Amino acid sequence: MTSLLEVRDLSVSFGGVKALSGVSFDVKAGEIFSIIGPNGAGKTTIFNCLSGLYRPTAGAIRLEGRDLVGLPPKDLATLGIARTFQNLGLFEHLTVMENVLLGRHHLMATSLLGNALRLRSTVREERENRARVSEILEIFSLAREADTPIGVLPYGVRKLIEIARALAMEPKLLLLDEPVAGMNHEETHRISEAILDVRRRHGTGMVLVEHDMRMVMTISDRLMAIDFGQHVATGTPHEIQNDPRVIEAYLGRAA
Ligand SMILES: Nc1ncnc2c1ncn2[C@@H]1O[C@H](COP(=O)(O)OP(=O)(O)OP(=O)(O)O)[C@@H](O)[C@H]1O
């Protein structure tokens, strides 16, 4: 089976600093794949390459066999890569429904003129988009908050909404950047369940960067550990937890 995502020998340098040196990994369709490593290991740099914010110095990135290197973020979004950010990028004065609808922006065909004239096709499209978003809000148990402005909701709920918005793009691959940073135990559990539910219902492949080891070990199918921009090990949570190289490079030092 071909991989959903193939990353080969990815290298990134900033001036003299080698942020990544020849990192390779695959993500299969419907797989939850996590990248772990100490601060400064290169995790965010990988995400920034995958979402088109950085151009790698060398290496290949392929989605379903198609080369992505050099494409701008908006083209990557159209091809099926969505991401969340460590810092929320939501519109505080808009409602939950409106924020998540914005995630579908690139899927909407109607023009501004169509909107102004309230054409029948525009009205139908809007109804369909709202129905899709309602389904997504259902997965995240957010249906009751659909008409609530984001600004009044707690941080943990906003984080869920950000994931819902990325999912509204109907991506093939969802990149989740520290989805449970700053969350309490209950919120972490809610987000973990939502992520697993998304995979169950939509079969979306996901790449996760997260420092919460318990969460990562619970929901990942496989993980890759990196250190100083280099690959350390890839395997199941059980394999990674018991790999002496990982314990040495990461877990031993993280405490
Ligand atoms: N835009 C940049 N310019 C210069 N150096 C950078 C840039 N982005 C990252 N780096 C360097 O690349 C290395 C990897 O950083 P990166 O942010 O990818 O690590 P990380 O694993 O995501 O860390 P954290 O867990 O703290 O978020 C670090 O040495 C960092 O200082």
From TrEMBL:
Instruction: Please tell me one Gene Ontology term that the record gives under cellular component.
Output: plasma membrane
Q: Which Pfam families match?
A: ABC_tran (PF00005), BCA_ABC_TP_C (PF12399)
Q: Which InterPro entries match?
A: AAA+_ATPase, ABC_AA/LPS_Transport, ABC_transporter-like_ATP-bd, BCA_ABC_TP_C, P-loop_NTPase
Superkingdom of this protein's organism: Bacteria
Q: Where is the ABC transporter domain?
A: 5-253
Note the Gene3D superfamilies from the entry.
P-loop containing nucleotide triphosphate hydrolases (3.40.50.300)
Any one GO MF term held by the record is: ATP binding
Question: Which keywords has UniProt assigned to this entry?
Answer: ATP-binding, Nucleotide-binding, Transport
Q: What is this protein called?
A: ABC transporter ATP-binding protein
Q: State the organism named in the record.
A: Xanthobacter tagetidis
